[in-house]
Structure to design on (912 residues):
């Protein structure tokens, strides 16, 4: 490992120069004008990996190409096999006038390299590639086989990767997936994200009268659907912030004392958090901290309300109908289909006899968790600590990350999320940057990771 | 009175022919293409009144003209003076394809005369004019002085009448206004409408976070404005259907036993009413009948709900804000401004500390009531009974009628609403009609009315 460290330190500047080269490609997947840039970027990456000694390929897909790069390996290698996932496509850079330097002319200011895609995600997966380079160029035997899978449609939710995983299931069979595409609180808090919330969507509609009624002529003798819906929805959340649906929490795995201690280590300031969200006061399920509430507890969220007249001024009607769009965030081991069934049942139970009710079930995604005390997770934590010099924190992510679900469903394998983005990296915003201290430590973390994972 | 009755019976057919002539004018106030038809119609009416011996005038206004016609009177007449209000403008006839006969070619089928404006309102005020004709042509002394005020902007809510009343306040000073522009349940239930509900409007908006938030990243730690609004609104109506605002009912004049008995005489079938509104079940304030709930009790109605995403599919956000448009129907002696103040106060009291609240007060109109046991009301009831041969019912109207408010505010005078429209007269709809039995009985009722009112 000493040799590796020496190599990484010695080549630090060149690594940054190469990253700058990589960042010059305006690989904006959402804009068809950049189709050629996308293809050029994929070819450059494959070529670069090949120059390091990896067996790389650019795979054509129905959309943008996928780049794979495999470390050299023996036939029937007995080494563990890991996938490293990343994406070379980037968000559109607009509005351009808000950038302090052009988004595709990477610019160094202080410790930060500014460019679209710097942190999301080129800089993050490039760090892993540079760690592999260190092994290969120093003649250090890689204790595991690695396959990089770098796609070009992450920012547009493309289907190419799903198809690719299905078609190459056998070749991609592995012991785990490593993804650096999430965040870390700061340099003193490197992070392993070990759980994601799932989601389940539905829409509920109440219909009272078969048309909008004159509120003067009929108002008072007929129930108002907007009022009936308000009463129903209001009863879905208890005073203590919990969700009033029988059976809703039955499958929730309790947070362990260890997890709660770890989540409590994540830096948090209520004042800053309130300011960030622009709220007067916070509110969440009683008995849980905000960090737990927003990542480790399920939610029942009204995303939209619609009823009656919404234009200027007023219209004196009893509206015919009222509806709400609802999504629930779910935590392990809640099952979206079961939750949808329970919530629909409760909505129907709360519906007054004056109303016809329709409940339309929508999209759903399973929650995800990998044990933070399993051997591979421990190996990841060890690598983070070795590289950043601080005990890592364990994070849970409140949203879903579709690729994690894909790897789990198609390859039946766990994903380890070792995010290298800082909160102020401006992902998806103007002046996106990569902190080069994080970048270098990330390379060193990755070098440690392959050894630690192989030993786990 | 016998002579009058004889004259009316003898001239029945001619009265209908004249009404047909009046109905041929497509006096559609909403459509500028009919500006000339409106003017022609006004001139015809003034000419017709003059031919009967009234002193008639067509008054130019900022909009469509107003026709007045005064019965011949002595200077410094000591007779009581009543106004008869009507409007010669009509609703647009569209959609034309739904009419069984052209809207401006009055067509007799059975006892019904079909034409736009037949019942709303030409037929109704024309009946009063024909009653006056009977007095004048039979040489019977009219026991009161009458001024017809027939406007051309009722269907477009024009301001011409308000201006006219203000400018001619002195000449229009009177002992009461008679308006036939409401309804009666059927021929066995002639009706006096003696009370109207008022209205008060407001809009309430809750703001939580200062922008829509990602429901995955933040959901659970911040209160959802759509949920907060639902909870608040849900608490505004009690389980028994009453309104949960301290002081809301303080000024409500209790229904007398006589009023409740009278309202109970109005024909009503729950099955038919439910079918009419297209509702599964009725709901209203406990302890009151549907007829009372929709006309004699105040309401709190949500007219519109707005929050977050309302497009196709779903959007996983915690919306920044949620708002509701609300109107209250008020009954005598509630004061709109006081009610608005009380409701705004209650909304603010129910608002959780997580939300910023804005309450915007909107338009308001006073409720209206004239004692159904006063001498003029009794005279009106007596006239209805004499003409229709059945004890009249007392009605309250759930909506407001702006002209009643204008007469009350500007002329400081009560209005007696003696509606001659049947429920199936298709007001504002295709195949509008006037029942000619009602028309003839209406003329006879009016003839009785002037005598009875003068004696009261």
């Amino acid at each position: 490992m000493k040799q590796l460290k020496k190599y990484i330190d010695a080549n630090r500047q060149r690594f940054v120069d190469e990253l700058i080269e990589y960042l010059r490609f305006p690989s904006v997947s959402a804009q068809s004008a950049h189709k050629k840039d996308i293809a050029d970027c994929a070819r450059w990456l494959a070529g670069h990996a090949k120059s390091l000694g990896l067996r790389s390929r650019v795979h054509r897909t129905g959309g943008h190409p996928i780049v794979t790069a495999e470390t050299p390996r023996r036939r029937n290698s007995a080494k563990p096999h890991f996938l490293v996932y990343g994406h070379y496509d980037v968000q559109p850079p607009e509005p351009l006038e808000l950038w302090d330097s052009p988004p595709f002319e990477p610019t160094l200011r202080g410790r930060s390299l500014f460019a679209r895609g710097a942190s999301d995600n080129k800089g993050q997966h490039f760090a892993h590639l540079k760690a592999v380079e260190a092994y290969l160029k120093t003649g250090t035997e890689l204790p595991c086989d690695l396959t990089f899978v770098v796609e070009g449609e992450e920012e547009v939710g493309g289907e190419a990767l799903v198809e690719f995983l299905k078609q190459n299931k056998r070749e991609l069979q592995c012991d785990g997936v490593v993804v650096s595409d999430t965040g870390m609180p700061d340099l003193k808090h490197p992070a392993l994200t070990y759980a994601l919330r799932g989601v389940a969507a539905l829409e509920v509609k109440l219909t009272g009268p078969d048309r909008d009624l004159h509120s003067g002529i009929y108002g008072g003798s007929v129930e108002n659907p907007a009022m009936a819906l308000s009463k129903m929805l209001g009863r879905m959340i208890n005073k203590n912030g919990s969700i009033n649906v029988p059976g809703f929490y039955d499958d929730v795995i309790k947070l362990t004392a260890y997890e709660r201690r770890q989540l409590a280590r994540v830096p948090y300031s209520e004042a800053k958090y309130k300011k960030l969200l622009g709220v007067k006061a916070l509110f969440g399920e009683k008995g849980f901290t905000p960090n737990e509430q927003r990542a480790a507890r399920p939610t029942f969220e009204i995303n939209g309300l619609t009823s009656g007249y919404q234009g200027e001024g007023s219209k004196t009607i009893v509206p015919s109908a009222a509806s709400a769009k609802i999504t629930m965030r779910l935590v392990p081991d809640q099952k979206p289909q079961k939750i949808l069934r329970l919530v629909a049942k409760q909505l129907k139970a709360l519906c007054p006899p004056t109303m016809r009710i329709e409940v339309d079930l929508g999209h759903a995604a399973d929650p995800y968790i990998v044990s933070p005390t399993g051997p591979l997770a421990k190996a990841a934590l060890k690598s983070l600590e070795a590289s950043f010099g601080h005990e890592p924190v364990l994070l849970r992510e409140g949203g879903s990350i579709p690729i994690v679900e894909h790897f789990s469903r198609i390859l039946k394998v766990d994903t380890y999320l070792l995010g290298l983005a800082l909160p102020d990296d401006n992902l998806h915003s103007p002046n996106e940057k990569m902190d080069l201290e994080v970048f270098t430590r990330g390379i060193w973390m990755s070098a440690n990771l392959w050894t630690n994972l192989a030993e786990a």
In short: Chain A has two domains: 2-196+367-455, 204-252+298-365.
